[in-house]
Amino acid sequence: MRFMIIVKATPESEAGIMPKPEVFEAMGKFNEELINAGVLLAGEGLHPSSEGALVTSSGGEITVTDGPFAESKELIAGFWIITAKSKDEALEWVKRIPFDDGETIELRRVFEAADFAEVLSADEIAKEQAWRDANQKPITN
User: Fold this and answer.
1) What's the CA gap between 52 and 116, in Å, rounded?
2) CA angle 86, 97, 77 (to 5 degrees)
3) According to the CATH classification, is domain 2-110 in 3.30.70.1060?
4) Which of 19, 45, 68, 103 is 20 to 30 A off residue 129, Cα-Cα?
């Protein structure tokens, strides 16, 4: 199973304030643990919403709204995608994140091709899974 670990934005991350060096160091050590365990598939920090855009579709029209966005508690500052045998195993990794005080982390399971068996043919599921197997490997040193 794949899980996305979502780091919620804070007023500091939305202001573009970089974490302190000791936070970067602790996060680097955590990332190394994920890599050494063979569970890290991807992980990135995101620039503030002021550098982003919202793209909305309504009535066949596309609207682009430049950031910043109003609700910082709903914004994402970064993420990891990991592989784990269960939600409990993924939560054990989340509990090891070097949190800043007041930081919020969200854990969500990522859909797998097999989850769409009701709407995709077995051939389509196999093709999707083959692509993932070939292209989504854990990050290694």
Assistant:
1) 31
2) 100
3) yes
4) 45
Which residue has tokens 């794949």?
A: 2
Instruction: Spell out the domain ranges in the chain.
Output: 2-110, 113-141
Find the helix or strand (DSSP H, E) in which 43 lies: strand 40-45
Q: Are 139 and 37 in contact (CB under 8 A)?
A: no
Using alpha carbons, select from 102, 104, 120 the residue that is nearest to residue 112.
120
Alpha carbon distance 65, 19 (integer Å) = 28
pLDDT in tens, 11-32: 888 999 998 899 889 999 999 9
User: Residues for the chain: how many in total?
Assistant: 141
